[in-house]
Write a structure and sequence with these properties.
This protein is an alpha+beta fold. Helix content is about 25%, strand content about 25%.
Length: about 375
């Protein structure tokens, strides 16, 4: 299917702009303007099409987590990291993207927890996020926002929006209203199945031994112009351990990864899974079969960690639609939606002073 046939008209030019964006001052202007007039399309429980704007998501995140000026609407709590990607060149078989040529590309990134409250305490069950900008700060960089989940919870814009509102904690319990959540799951059985899959995954000790996945599908394009559906993941090279029985302090996940990186660089294998024609590139709630071909493309190394501050990952929008030549978005409806909401979040936090980082490492990035 031609990409233009499935992307709403207001997104065609914005998506192309993001592919060629250059990091720095020029990029800020693009992000500030990215969500002006944008409309996200989702389908309700009965299949009727609804229009959702980035502002609707801004309002929903704030209704659930409160208003926290200067912080991201989602994944508000985080810490900055940097390092490099050592490519072995194997990925060049399926993509012309610069990052997959043999050699080393610098990167910056950010570990995070989901939610709009930057003061949330770390928990064993909370999903863990890792955003990377590989090739930063070059024009051909590749950005990806990953989670340590086997699948994503939603496969539609409407589903994500409805789940966000249904997850609002009830005062006194800190948990969603069970009646509201049950009603949501009845209307979105795909999320109920995805959440069951997620619950089967055993938690690990922290960020360092978590597997991170891009979850959404993309296309790699090689020198011959062949388009290959792919998903990617980071497999930890550190031995996987169970989570601590008695975590120490509200920031224990972050405190541990700060200590880990300062002790020795952390490494993950960057794996690219090749999709087959029967694999649905539009539905992130469904895992592709385990027997799909996987290409080990190299090693992601994180060797520096720092408190979020001006000039490091604090100011990077990990928009999944910032793609280099050789990588293209799939027809997954969540991709343009994520891009729109990320831009809205960036626009609202840019230039806001006084947003103190919730994770202190004692130094800023080198």
């Amino acid at each position: 299917m031609d990409r233009k046939s499935i992307v709403p008209p207001s997104w065609r030019s914005a998506s192309a702009d993001r592919r060629s964006v250059v990091i720095g001052i020029a990029a800020v202007g693009a992000f500030l303007a990215a969500d002006v007039g944008a409309v996200l399309y989702g389908r309700g429980p009965l299949g009727s099409q609804r229009r959702l704007t980035p502002q609707a998501f801004v309002d929903a995140f704030r209704a659930v987590a409160g208003i926290h000026p200067g912080y991201r609407l989602n994944h508000a709590k985080g810490v900055a990291v940097s390092g490099y990607f050592d490519s072995n060149g194997a990925g060049a078989e399926v993509t012309t993207a610069a990052a997959f040529r043999a050699g080393r590309s610098p990167l910056i990134g950010r570990f995070s927890l989901p939610g709009g409250d930057p003061t949330v305490s770390d928990t064993t069950a909370a999903p863990r996020g890792l955003g990377l900008a590989i090739g930063y700060p070059g024009a051909g960089q590749w950005r990806t926002a990953m989670l340590n989940l086997p699948v994503f919870q939603d496969n539609s814009v409407q589903g994500f929006y409805d789940r966000l509102l249904a997850s609002k904690p009830v005062p006194g319990t800190g948990q969603p209203d069970p009646t509201v959540m049950a009603r949501f799951l009845a209307a979105h059985p795909e999320t109920a199945v995805a959440m069951s899959t997620i619950k089967q995954q055993q938690p690990t000790s922290g960020f360092a031994d978590s597997t991170f996945r891009g979850l959404n599908a993309f296309y790699f394009v090689n020198t011959a112009g062949d388009r290959t559906p792919v998903r990617w993941s980071l497999s930890p090279m550190r031995e996987v351990q169970p989570p601590p029985t008695s975590p120490a302090g509200p920031n224990w996940l972050f405190d541990n990864v700060v200590r880990d990186i300062r002790s020795s660089p952390l490494r993950w294998r960057l794996l690219v899974t090749i999709g087959e024609p029967e694999d649905d590139v539009r539905d992130a709630t469904i895992a592709w079969p385990a027997d799909r071909r996987t290409i080990a493309t190299g090693t992601v190394v994180l060797d520096s960690v720092a408190t979020e501050s001006a000039g490091n990952a604090r100011d990077v929008n990990f928009d999944p639609m910032v793609l280099p030549d050789g990588i293209e978005p799939s027809e997954d409806p969540l991709l343009p939606a994520r891009s729109a909401v990320y831009a809205a979040s960036f626009r609202r936090r840019a230039g806001v002073n006084g947003a103190a980082p919730q994770v202190e490492t004692g130094e800023v990035a080198r």
